[in-house]
Every structure is written in structure tokens, then in C-alpha cells.
Amino acid sequence: MINKQELIFRISDIIINIYSAESIILRIVKENIAEDAIAMKIAKVYCHDALFIIYKLLYEIFESIYDGNDLENNLKLLDKNFMKVNYDIVSLLRDIADKGIEINECPF
What is the pTM of this model? Predict the structure, then answer.
């Protein structure tokens, strides 16, 4: 029962991360700030981080469900099919920080 609770916690965290990433994107669309470069950079960084958290949680779930060859095969499928985002996160974070310094407050 405890193992199942831990899996449910991880699944819940995945759902929360998906929901929050979707929310930030929808908020940008709703507020018509898609043209705002800093808002888009913040969204990219947030979604990038959420994807890595989701990947880590899925990896942990697979490790607890599968073993041996099944684990190896399913981890290969996860790596093959998981969406990879190639952003230069350090540059995006630097741009966000520069904007914060420029306006003398946190840009988000």
C-alpha cells in the first residue's frame, strides 16, 4: 500500500506540473502578452523546468514498476518518445535577470 501511495504522489506531481505549465501558457495568451519577450522567456524557462521534473518522476515510476529487461526497454521508450526542448536556458535566465535589473524589480 505504501508503494502505491508513493506512485500516486509522483503521478499527482506530474499532473500538477502539466497543469501549471499549461496555465502559464494560457495566461500569456489570455493577457495578450505573447509579444512580450520577457514573458515568453519566463514561460519557456518554467515549461523547460517542468518537463525535466516530469521526466524525472516518470523515470522513478518506471523504476518502481518494472525490473530487468522490462525496465530497460521502457526507459528506452521514455527517452525516445519524451519531448525534448532545446532552449539555451542560461541565456534566457540572463535576459530575465537583465530585465529585472533594468526595471529595478522582479519581472514576474
Answer: 0.82
